[in-house]
Amino acid sequence: MECPRREENLKNCNCTYTCDKKGNCCLCIAYHRSMDELPACYFSKSAERTYDRSVKKFIQDHKQ
C-alpha cells in the first residue's frame, strides 16, 4: 500500500533506520504496534538512535 503523503511525512520523520515503511506512517505504526513497540517519532533524537523502540525506553526517554 503506497501512502499518498509519503514525501510530506518524510520531511518530519526522525527515524534513522532504513526500511520500506519509512514515510508510510500507517504501516510503520501498525508494524511497531504488532511488536509492542512505538515508532521512532515518539522518541527524542538521542533515544531514537538506540533503536530501542520499547515502551520502557519511551518512559525513560520522557522522564529526563
For the record, give the distance between the C-alpha atoms at the N and C termini, rounded to a whole number: 37 Å
As a percent range, the share of helical residues equals 40-55%
Low-confidence stretches: none
Per the principal axes of the C-alpha atoms, what is the gross shape? globular
Overall tally of domains:
1
Helices and strands, in order, run as HHHH
Which structural category fits the helices and strands? Answer: mainly alpha
Q: Helical region count?
A: 4
Strand content: under 5%
Would you tell me the overall average pLDDT? 94
- The total count of strands amounts to 0
Biggest beta sheet summary: none
Task: Compute the CA-based radius of gyration.
Answer: 12 Å
Key terms for this structure?
0% strand; globular; single chain; mainly alpha; 47% helix
Give the gist of this structure.
Helix content is 47%, strand content 0%.
Task: Explain this structure.
The protein has 64 residues and is an all-alpha fold. It has helices at residues 6-12, 25-34, 45-48, 55-63. It starts with 5 loop residues before the first helix and ends with a helix.
Secondary structure: elements and pairs:
Layout: H1 6-12, H2 25-34, H3 45-48, H4 55-63
